[in-house]
Write a structure and sequence with these properties.
Keywords: ATP-binding, DNA-binding, Nucleotide-binding. The chain has 16 helices and 12 strands. By secondary structure, it is of the alpha/beta class. The strands form 3 sheets. A 6-stranded mixed sheet has the order 6-7-8-4-9-12, with helices on both faces. A hairpin with a 2-residue loop joins β10 and β11. It is elongated, with a radius of gyration of 28 Å. The N and C termini lie far apart (57 Å).
């Protein structure tokens, strides 16, 4: 079963988006090759739901973080090699002779470019092999070619470079018939291994890049447990895109599965919730996370309700869109799925009385679904006081506001309890809006 995260959630958390410089994808997209970028996109699109696979991938990233190495390959050269090996198809010596002869004749008689493209492909492939051989020697010298994530890559490179037929390093120095033989060797006998080498090289590019981001930004590597363990314990959680984010710690389990969050506007509620959602998503990818420690049970997915838009075409008001979002989540949790749920300012699109009643009823109902974890934020702190009787099941936390010279300041540090802070009018007055009017 694949990990669940719908478009609303992906947008709320700014997870995807190659061309969005503020997306989590862009944060990790420091790869050198297009092949690695495709792999990165695939991993973002398909988080894992198996604890063993998550921990295995995480261990690889951790290895490259602890054992950094520069990626020595040229992207353009790898592209040309990939186009050459993929485009040629499997080849025999006779077929290679006819293919190369046709391209050579077209060059001589029609000034065609196919033969030169052929030579470029061969030379690029030989250069990639030479670069791989140099890296392999470095790994062998450092003892990193065996019993490490390099082992499979190193085995393929070793098998290729040890073949005496590949001792030539430039097809430009060869006769026509030597070029034919080399073409048959690369696109026939070694084609499968070269394709595999390319794929593993792209993977290594990805591992090096992601590990580099983790090392630079001080991310940690999570430990995944089976779903049945039903826990999430995170220390030092922060938003991965912020350089000076204030860390917070959170924990959930079957006996305490709802976090009821209060705080004034600008106190940091949305950022904390997004940070936690991103943490959960990246952890299921096996990626490093913006925290100092994370242990979690595998979940089936994540749903968020942060920026729920109205829908003019369907005639949905903002409030009705919120209701439909809650209904969707209710259907999923009632179906027995283990989910991480984020509701930021639940039912903010309606009047205070209805919002109070709905927040109270929905929050109380969610406590029954102990295989799911919820963060619910609200300005309606009265609803929190009404839920006091469920303190064992519900964690009450708030982000405080400190007044200094009638100016609100924010610690962004979670504290236990429910806040009654409301500084909306103070902010409006401080901005001089009433004086303008």
């Amino acid at each position: 079963m694949s990990f669940i995260a719908d478009k609303q959630t992906l947008d709320d958390l700014s997870l995807l988006g190659k061309y969005n410089p503020n997306s989590v994808f862009s944060l990790f997209n420091k790869v050198k090759t297009r092949g690695a970028e495709k792999l990165l996109d695939a991993m973002f699109q398909q988080p894992l739901t198996d604890a063993g696979k998550i921990n295995s991938r995480s261990a690889i990233f951790r290895y490259f973080s602890d054992n950094p190495v520069a990626f020595p390959f040229d992207d353009a050269m790898l592209d040309r090699m990939e186009a050459y090996v993929d485009g040629a198809g499997e080849s025999s010596l006779m077929l290679s002779f006819f293919q190369v002869t046709r391209k050579k004749l077209a060059e001589v008689l029609l000034r065609g470019e196919e033969f030169q493209l052929e030579m470029t492909g061969i030379n690029s492939t030989l250069q990639v092999i030479k670069t791989a051989e140099g890296l392999l020697k470095q790994l062998e010298k450092e003892g990193r070619d065996k019993n490490t994530p390099w082992e499979k890559w190193a085995g393929i490179v070793r098998h290729i470079v040890q073949d005496p037929r590949l001792k030539e390093r430039s097809a430009n120095q060869l006769s026509f018939f030597q070029v034919v033989k080399l073409h048959e060797l690369l696109t026939g006998q070694f084609r499968g291994q070269l394709i595999q080498l390319l794929h593993l090289t792209y993977e290594i590019d990805l591992y090096i890049a992601v590990a580099g981001v983790a090392r630079e930004r001080g991310f940690c590597y999570a430990t995944a447990f089976p779903k049945s363990d039903n826990l999430l314990s995170a220390k030092g959680v922060r938003h991965p895109g912020l350089d000076k984010a204030v860390p917070n710690s959170l924990s959930f389990n079957g006996k305490s599965n709802v976090l009821f969050l209060t705080g004034a506007n600008m106190a940091g509620k949305s950022t904390l919730m997004k940070s936690t959602g991103i943490l959960v998503y990246l952890a299921h990818m096996g990626f490093p996370v913006a925290a100092t420690e994370l242990q979690f049970s595998v979940l089936d997915g994540i749903y968020s309700s942060v920026n729920v838009p109205d829908d003019i075409n369907k005639g949905y008001s903002h409030f009705y869109a919120e209701v439909l979002r809650v209904k969707k989540v209710a259907e999923e949790v009632a179906d027995g799925k283990s989910l991480f749920i984020i509701f930021d300012e639940l039912f903010k699109g309606t009047n205070v009385k209805d919002a109070y009643d709905a927040t109270l009823a929905v929050t109380e109902a969610f406590t029954d679904f102990t295989d799911c974890f919820f963060i619910i934020s609200t300005h309606i702190f009265e609803a929190g006081h009404a839920l006091d009787k469920m303190e064992d099941q519900i964690q009450f936390r708030f982000l405080p506001t400190v007044m200094k010279d009638n100016v609100p300041q924010y610690t962004y540090q979670l504290e236990k309890g429910i806040t009654t802070d409301r500084q909306g009018m103070i902010i409006i007055e401080n901005e001089g809006i009433l004086d303008m009017l």
